[in-house]
């Protein structure tokens, strides 16, 4: 059984979730296509070979473009390598890029597609929970630079996203957990039912790649992402009363800074987990949320063994946060909650309050 979630973009597309849905790839790649470049990470090489043999049957010329695992793929060097392969293969505007891998791979593949010939079609085949619920959907593509995370990129929507749950069976457990941090994020910003599902089911079944509960959480996370991006495709502002796509950045201001500070040795979802506790502290200290909602952040994340504390110096993080895309001029802006499911922007908090929130993090429980 599969679920189909529509994303109402300028060119609407579907996110298909279920076991075996990779079988739809030939259809979504489409006709009148001569070449397909499958940009994939090393870890999913076997899957890439499978994709090549399926697409190759239709007389397509399939180029496998293997890139490093994880964040190392999101570099100017790897981007340049992909451009070179496309150039040497004579890749035209009617050809298609396929991104096969986790969020790092699909962020890169999407940016390759956004920039080659000023934009070609691309299809995402995410192979991590995080890729399925977040990175592969919504059209944010890009790479990192020495100054920080995702600083160069483009909005470029995929033509389709196929989330084949079977691929999760090889995903290492810490990666699965990391993806769940973005699912928890969706719970706090938009769909409290996600939190209840996790709290009631318990970690064992949530972390089981074959469990119906994980499939349900993935589908619900995608639904939040699809709804949010459809309202504000390019992060220019939400509908009346809302903050639009910036809501999806919950926990990311500090989270991205931690990733950079750790030289990407921490997983994205782990850093975002710490970042969500930080902004919950911030909201609590501004009397926006009560102590119970703050504690609920720690509890649900800890129940999945996601980190809720981080020990290190604050000043480098503050400097990195100034490079966050939500910053305007010298003013830092954070996504916080004013209630469960009600995100808002908190602009220009006092530096001392930020330091106090950080100290509370480093010290664990308040
Ligand atoms: N564009 C967006 O909207 C968006 C949203 C969220 C996150 N992101 C980005 O996504 C990235 C994180 O993505 P991620 O958590 O998927 O990590 P990842 O892509 O770095 O993958 C994690 C590791 O798992 C391996 N892997 C992937 N699929 C596997 C599988 N099925 N079996 C075995 N190993 C597998 C990868 O090769 C890698 O080593 C970050 O760069 C983050 O900034 C982007
Ligand atoms: O889709 C979005 O919008 C998000 O913010 C989703 C985030 O989970 C994701 O990590 C995104 O890549 C962060 O974007 P950035 O604009 O802060 O780089
Ligand atoms: Zn994220």
From TrEMBL:
It catalyses: 7-phospho-2-dehydro-3-deoxy-D-arabino-heptonate = 3-dehydroquinate + phosphate. Residues 179-327 form the 3-dehydroquinate synthase C-terminal domain. Keywords: Amino-acid biosynthesis, Aromatic amino acid biosynthesis, Cobalt, Cytoplasm, Lyase, Metal-binding, NAD, Nucleotide-binding, Zinc. NAD(+) binds at residues 69-74, 127-128, 140, 149. Pathway: Metabolic intermediate biosynthesis; chorismate biosynthesis; chorismate from D-erythrose 4-phosphate and phosphoenolpyruvate: step 2/7. InterPro entries: Dehydroquinate_synthase, DHQ_synth_AroB, DHQ_synth_fam, DHQS/DOIS_N, DHQS_C. Zn(2+) binds at residues 182, 252, 268. Belongs to the sugar phosphate cyclases superfamily. Dehydroquinate synthase family. It comes from Aeromicrobium halocynthiae. The lineage of its organism: Bacteria, Bacillati, Actinomycetota, Actinomycetes, Propionibacteriales. This is 3-dehydroquinate synthase. Catalyzes the conversion of 3-deoxy-D-arabino-heptulosonate 7-phosphate (DAHP) to dehydroquinate (DHQ). Its cofactor is NAD(+); Co(2+); Zn(2+). Pfam families: DHQ_synthase, DHQS_C. Signal peptide: none annotated. It is found in: Cytoplasm. Its main location: cytoplasm. Its EC number is 4.2.3.4. Binds 1 divalent metal cation per subunit. Can use either Co(2+) or Zn(2+).
């Amino acid at each position: 059984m599969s679920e189909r979630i529509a994303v109402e973009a300028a060119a609407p597309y579907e996110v298909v979730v279920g076991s075996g849905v990779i079988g739809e790839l030939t259809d979504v790649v489409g006709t009148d296509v001569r070449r397909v470049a499958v940009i994939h990470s090393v870890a999913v090489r076997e899957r890439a070979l499978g994709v090549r043999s399926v697409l190759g049957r239709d007389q397509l010329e399939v180029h496998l473009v293997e890139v490093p695992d994880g964040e190392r793929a999101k570099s100017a060097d790897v981007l340049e390598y992909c451009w070179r392969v496309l150039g040497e293969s004579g890749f035209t505007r009617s050809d298609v890029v396929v991104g096969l891998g986790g969020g790092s791979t699909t962020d890169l593949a999407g940016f390759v597609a956004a920039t080659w010939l000023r934009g070609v079609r691309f299809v995402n085949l995410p192979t991590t929970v995080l890729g399925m619920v977040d990175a592969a959907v919504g059209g944010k593509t890009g790479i990192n630079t020495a100054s920080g995370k995702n600083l160069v990129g483009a909005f470029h929507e995929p033509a389709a996203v196929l989330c084949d749950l079977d691929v999760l069976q090889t995903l290492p457990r810490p990666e699965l957990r990391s993806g769940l941090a973005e699912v928890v994020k969706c719970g706090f910003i938009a769909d409290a039912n996600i939190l209840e599902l996790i709290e009631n089911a318990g970690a064992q079944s949530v972390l089981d790649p074959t469990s119906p509960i994980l499939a349900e959480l993935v589908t619900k996370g995608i639904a939040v992402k699809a709804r949010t991006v459809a309202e504000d495709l390019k992060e220019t502002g939400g509908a009346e009363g809302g903050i639009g796509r910036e809501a999806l950045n919950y926990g990311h201001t500090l989270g991205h800074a931690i990733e950079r500070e750790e030289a990407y040795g921490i997983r994205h979802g782990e850093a975002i987990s710490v970042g969500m506790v930080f902004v919950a502290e911030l909201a609590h200290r501004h009397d926006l949320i009560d102590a119970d909602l703050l504690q609920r952040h720690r509890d649900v994340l800890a129940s999945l063994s996601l980190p809720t504390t981080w020990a290190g110096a604050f000043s480098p993080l503050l400097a990195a946060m100034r490079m966050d895309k939500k910053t305007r001029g010298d003013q830092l802006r954070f996504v916080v909650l004013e209630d469960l499911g009600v995100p808002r922007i908190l602009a220009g908090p006092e530096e001392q309050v930020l330091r106090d929130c950080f100290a509370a993090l480093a010290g664990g429980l308040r």
